[in-house]
Write a structure and sequence with these properties.
Helix content is about 45%, strand content about 25%. The chain has 11 helices and 18 strands. Strands 8, 9, 10, 11, 12, 16, 17 and 18 form an 8-stranded mixed β-sheet that branches. The chain has a 7-stranded antiparallel β-sheet with strand order 2-6-7-1-5-4-3. A hairpin with a 2-residue loop joins strand 13 and strand 14. Helix 1 packs across helix 3, helix 2 crosses helix 3 and helix 7 crosses helix 9. The longest helix has about 35 residues. The two termini are about 35 Å apart. The C terminus is likely disordered.
């Protein structure tokens, strides 16, 4: 099994090299957009990387005056992935338009970047440049020490970004973990932890643990007010301070999301779960009525859980969220009137509970139904609840029964019921 990490590293770049990087970003995005436009030409959308490479590589190289071949291929890969995403949305009956490659970045691999201990060599539109890393204490408690400079991790590539006036290289690292580690063995034939995301409650798990959105919303409003006050000033000082407020806001939210993701992973480990199931994050802003900030938070939270859980042999997955908030997790009856605000009460069987908790159970059950294979072939056996477990057929096991079968103690949280 692979464990992957991404470590952001600020680069020290002089003005001449910065100009080259700017041109490289522009050329990379132009190349990717050229491939997208070609893929969407005609009746069908081409998503095959091989086909797109055969049909566009020489054209892009010619039109960009010989742009680095490795970067041309990286741009093609980026374009193909964007096209596949659009086609996937169409297949699911969702709207999507032709991608616009506007996010300023460049994708590097070992052909186009050489990673050294103190600096990196990067291909550009005009040869290579060398940029020094701006690093914290390489022996301290930082991601750089833990991953980038660790003998256990291999550097696989990077993405170059321009952020807050600085050039940053997001370096990708990975290591191989043995498939029979104690942590992974403990979760084989385990259970699913369902996770519901929302606005009032940022996160709710099928084990009955709630993380409210109060703190997130408080600080989002606080930072919005600060930016509004500064915008009214209209001075250069105010503009610089708006950027500073943005950095502080992102830092605070990242710290909060790291804490929540750690606690979700710990919840899964405590209950012997092999899978953490989230709802599909596509269109989550529309479904929850949240802000752009909420969508950013949900995506970032999933990313954090995904890579932190992998270290313990636990996978993070996404499932179709349709009707998970309207479906009764006890009898399966689905109706819009089952839910009113935070209260879920089934019109058929009378089951009553917190609506977000009911949704978290349904998300876990949705994963089970999608993946259940029966027998002992490694498929998860049930969804962890706040008291016991429920299997794909709706059959309930008490905490004592779960402990006897799995050896993992299942605590009961009486404030929400089963």
């Amino acid at each position: 099994m692979e464990v992957r990490r991404t470590v952001p590293v600020t680069l020290e770049v002089d003005s001449d090299d910065a100009a080259l990087l700017e041109d490289t970003v522009d050329t990379f995005l132009w190349s990717a957009q050229y491939v997208v436009d070609h893929a969407f030409h005609g009746e069908y959308v081409t998503t095959s990387k091989t086909t797109l490479d055969d049909e566009t590589y020489e054209d892009v190289r010619e039109k960009t005056d010989g742009f680095n071949g490795g970067l041309v291929q990286a741009a093609r890969n980026k374009a193909a992935e964007a096209c596949k995403s659009v086609v996937a949305r169409w297949k699911n009956g969702k709207k999507a338009s032709k991608p616009r490659m506007t996010s300023p970045h460049v994708v590097y691999d070992h052909r186009t970047a050489t990673f050294h201990d103190e600096y990196v060599s990067l291909a550009t539109v005009d040869g290579r440049i060398e940029a020094d890393y701006v690093l914290p204490d390489r022996h301290g408690d930082t991601p750089h020490a833990e991953y980038l400079f660790s003998d256990e991790y291999e550097t696989t590539g990077a993405e170059l970004h321009r952020k807050h006036g600085e050039w940053q290289l997001h370096i990708h690292c990975k290591k191989e973990m043995e498939s029979d580690t104690p942590e992974q063995a403990a979760t084989e034939n385990g259970t699913v932890l369902g996770v519901d995301l929302g606005v009032n409650n940022l996160t709710v798990t099928s084990t009955g643990t709630f993380w409210t959105g109060d703190e997130f919303d408080h600080w989002r409003r606080e930072y919005e007010n600060r930016r509004g006050d500064l915008q009214e000033c209209g001075t250069r000082w105010a503009h610089e301070n708006i950027q500073s407020v943005g950095r502080k806001e992102e830092g605070r939210f990242k710290m909060t999301l790291h804490r929540i993701s750690n606690e979700i992973v710990e919840e899964a480990r405590d209950h012997g779960c092999s899978v953490i199931a989230f709802e599909d994050l596509t269109d989550i802003r529309e479904r929850t009525g949240g802000s752009w900030g909420h969508k950013w938070a949900f995506n970032r939270l999933y990313e954090y859980v995904e890579y932190k859980a992998a270290e313990y042999g636990i996978t993070a997955e996404q499932v179709d969220p349709e009707n998970t908030s309207r479906r009764c997790s006890e009898c399966g009856f689905t109706h819009p009137d089952n839910r009113e605000g935070d209260l879920f009460e089934c019109l058929k069987c009378g089951y009553k509970n917190h609506a977000d908790y009911n949704a978290a159970k349904n998300i876990g059950l949705r994963y089970l139904r999608r993946n259940q294979t029966g027998g002992d072939g490694g498929a998860p056996l049930g969804v962890r609840l706040n008291s016991g477990m429920v299997n794909v057929n709706g059959e309930y096991e008490s905490p004592a029964d779960v402990s006897a079968r799995t050896g993992v103690h299942a605590e009961s949280h009486p404030f929400t019921g089963g």
